[in-house]
């Protein structure tokens, strides 16, 4: 599984989000790799209407229908076409009890939950809530030039060993070698943002990752 997190990059916002999702879909078709895009809440509907690959949200709040001005409601994202969501991303942290509530909420809606963790310890804490995936991303490597696979391969193997859940890894992933290392160490997939969104050719960059994931 490859999740391309669009974050709030200009290259992946509004009509650009739809265009980039279409590229991701083409790469998924061409390579046979499982590729999911995580779009901003405001773009989920337009992206999901346009592509047939899974579209995730980047965040949900631990709230139900009601008076929660400005909150991101999972039910609304589900209705808009999101089939899953990231939660507790390093750039949108939640308290542990909120992570628990969000996992339960996603489960009740039949949506896939990808709970992020900064390290293996946090991943183990979150795994007891039973998310579908735990994505381990060292915050200091996110958006950087050095990947988690190069800088912290032991974090990947420790996470796979200790966390009783499907483990994804992310941070700084840019090329096929990063993916090959993560896969070899037992990760079930990767999360990537800048390596695709900011690439000169997102199609070429994603194709390389997808080929390495096969
Ligand atoms: O969610 C994926 C992300 O945080 C990794 O970002 O830019 O290092 O690929 P990036």
Low-confidence stretches: none
Helix content: 40-55%
Largest sheet: 8 strands, parallel, barrel
What is the number of domains? 1
**Widest β-sheet, arrangement of strands:** 1-2-3-4-5-6-7-8
Radius of gyration using CA atoms only: 16 Å
Return the CATH architecture.
Alpha-Beta Barrel
Mean pLDDT: 97
Helical/strand content category: alpha/beta
User: Regarding CATH, which class?
Assistant: Alpha Beta
Using DSSP, what is the number of strands? 8
Bound molecules: SN-glycerol-3-phosphate
End-to-end CA span = 10 Å
CATH-assigned homologous superfamily: Aldolase class I
**Which descriptor suits the 3D outline?**
globular
> Might you state the CATH topology name?
TIM Barrel
Helix/strand order: EHEHEHEHEHEHHEHEHH
- In percent terms, what proportion of residues is strand? 15-25%
Walk me through what this model shows.
This protein has one domain (2-213): TIM Barrel. 43% of the residues lie in helices and 16% in strands. The longest helix has 17 residues, at 15-31. An 8-stranded parallel barrel has the order 1-2-3-4-5-6-7-8, surrounded by 8 helices. The mean pLDDT is 97. It is of the alpha/beta class and 214 residues long. The termini are close together.
Please write out the topology:
Elements: E1 2-5, H1 15-31, E2 35-39, H2 44-50, E3 55-57, H3 74-80, E4 84-87, H4 96-108, E5 112-117, H5 120-127, E6 133-136, H6 148-151, H7 153-162, E7 166-170, H8 176-184, E8 189-192, H9 194-197, H10 202-213
Parallel strand pairs: 1-2, 1-8, 2-3, 3-4, 4-5, 5-6, 6-7, 7-8
């Amino acid at each position: 599984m490859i999740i391309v997190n669009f974050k709030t990059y200009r290259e992946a916002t509004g009509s650009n989000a739809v265009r980039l999702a279409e590229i991701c879909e083409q790469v998924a078709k061409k390579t046979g790799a499982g590729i999911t895009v995580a779009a901003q809440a405001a773009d989920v509907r337009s992206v999901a209407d346009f592509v047939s690959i899974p579209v995730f949200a980047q965040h949900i709040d631990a709230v139900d229908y009601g008076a929660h001005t400005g909150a991101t409601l999972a039910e609304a994202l589900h209705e808009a076409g999101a089939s899953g969501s990231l939660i507790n991303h390093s750039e949108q942290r939640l308290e542990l009890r909120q992570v628990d509530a969000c996992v339960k909420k996603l489960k009740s809606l039949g949506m896939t939950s990808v709970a992020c963790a900064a390290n293996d310890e946090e991943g183990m804490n979150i795994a007891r809530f039973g998310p579908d995936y735990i994505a381990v991303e060292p915050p200091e490597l996110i958006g950087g030039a050095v990947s988690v696979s190069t800088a912290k391969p032991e974090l990947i193997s420790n996470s796979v060993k200790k966390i009783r859940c499907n483990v994804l890894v992310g941070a700084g992933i840019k090329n096929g070698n990063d993916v090959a290392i993560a896969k070899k160490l037992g990760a079930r997939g990767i999360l990537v943002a800048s390596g695709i969104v900011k690439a000169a050719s997102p199609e070429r960059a994603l194709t390389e990752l997808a080929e390495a994931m096969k």
